[in-house]
Specification:
401 residues; alpha/beta; Spore Coat Polysaccharide Biosynthesis Protein SpsA, Chain A; Rossmann fold; 2 domains; 15 strands; 30% helix; elongated
Length: 401
């Protein structure tokens, strides 16, 4: 894991002491990192400087630190240790700035270039002059489960007047003898940046769990729902062993990722660009934005899995007709007798059998109650699970009410 340490420079006199601190305190060999510095002579601001320095960096891992800090012992070693928690080394690690709380957006960080496609190609949006760009970066990485804080990757500020003891940050700046801070943290700059931040955060592709959507890492208060969803995918895995698989209406991609453990390949389609962007950045599978009610591509799969999908469609017939011609096995689930603000249709068992019966003569029906999936289904079942097989070897097994 080699790292490019980038430092936009405003105070050239600080650089010798900063570079020396990096060399002494990195905790890894000098051959494992490069230091790139460039003075912002035209005062274009940190966001634009960061973008230029990232473009010059040789390595995929980028560490951003300001010229007003002193990194502490093993700061780089400990940041890399935290990065290893991301299997593909594709996250953002917040460094421990002792002037800020651990739950605040990190001012300094270690991040992977692999994140850039999800960040519109730049770590800091270059519309910012100086402030709030770090807050937005942290929010974006948190939204895609790519953020961790490293408490033992410590940096300390190194400029006059910044002791963190005043009642407010602006009071601190007012007393600061550092000319750069007085210029940068002006009311004009502050007002511009916070206005931009508020505008952009409204448009961020933030993803949260709902009863209809699962986001791994955001389900602490919905553990029963999480177990229920995962149980369906665990059940479906036996129909995906060594198969080419499609997860239709894949949402955030956690289920596609589970099916991939058994499948040769597993693709995920969903109508929501937000969830597809999330899935594409979290899992190493093929995800596409796809409206299942419209004309679909002529791609054939061995198995198509589609859980809790057709109740979200006004007319699922286009999708079902396509499935018939594009897979050997179709595994699906539908909630029964379940009106919801998210559902466009409510299905009884008879409704469901009639609809599916248009396309498959032999269906194996099962029911799910919490994590338990059992043979047969009845009017009182919470979820109906169906397995449709083009070879017609499955037989209808339905419990009497």
């Amino acid at each position: 894991m080699k790292v490019s340490i980038i430092i936009p420079v405003i105070r050239p006199k600080n650089i010798p002491k900063l570079v020396n601190a990096i060399l002494q305190n990195a905790g890894v060999k000098e051959s494992e990192y490069e230091i790139i510095t460039k003075t912002d002579t035209k005062r274009i601001g940190a966001p634009k400087m960061v973008k230029r320095l990232v473009e010059k960096a040789k390595y995929d891992l980028i560490m951003f630190i300001g010229d007003d800090v002193i990194p502490q012992r093993n700061f780089l070693k400990n940041a890399l240790k935290a990065m290893k928690q991301f299997t593909d080394l594709d996250g953002l690690i917040g460094l421990n700035d002792t002037n800020r709380r651990a739950d605040e957006a990190p001012t300094h960080w270690l991040a992977s270039k692999k994140l850039l496609p999800a960040l519109d190609g730049e770590f800091f949006h270059t519309g910012y002059i100086h402030q709030y760009c770090d807050n937005e970066l942290a929010l974006r990485c948190m939204a895609i489960n790519k953020y961790l804080f490293a408490p033992d990757a410590i940096i300390e500020h190194n400029h006059p007047g910044f002791k963190g003891k005043e009642k407010s940050f602006m009071e601190n700046i007012a007393k600061n003898k550092d000319k750069f801070y007085k210029e940068t943290y002006s009311k004009k700059v502050h007002d511009h940046d916070i206005k931009l931040f508020k505008q952009r955060t409204k448009k961020l592709n933030m993803i949260y769990s709902t009863g209809e959507r699962v986001v791994i890492g955001d389900m602490k208060n919905e553990i029963v729902t999480l177990q229920e969803h995962i149980a369906r995918y665990n059940f479906a895995m036996k129909y995906c062993s060594m198969k080419k698989v499609l997860d239709a209406a894949c949402s955030t991609g956690y289920g596609t990722n589970l099916l991939a453990e058994a499948a040769v390949t597993a693709d995920g389609w969903d109508i929501s660009k937000k969830t597809i962007d999330f899935a594409s950045n979290k899992y190493n599978h093929t995800f596409k934005v796809m409206d299942l009610t419209k004309k679909l591509p002529d791609i054939k799969y061995d198995t198509i899995v589609s859980f809790e999908t057709i109740e979200h469609m006004k007319d699922p017939n286009n999708f079902l007709r396509w499935v018939v011609d594009h897979c050997d096995t179709f595994v699906f689930s539908v909630p029964l007798n379940n009106p919801s603000q998210f559902h466009l249709a409510v299905y009884t068992l008879e409704d469901l059998e009639k609809m599916i019966g248009k396309y498959w003569t032999d269906v194996e029906w099962l029911s799910q109650e919490w994590i338990h999936i059992i043979q047969g289904v009845n009017q009182g079942s919470t979820f109906a699970i169906g397995i449709c097989n083009s070879s017609n070897i499955k037989r209808l097994t339905k419990k009497k009410n």
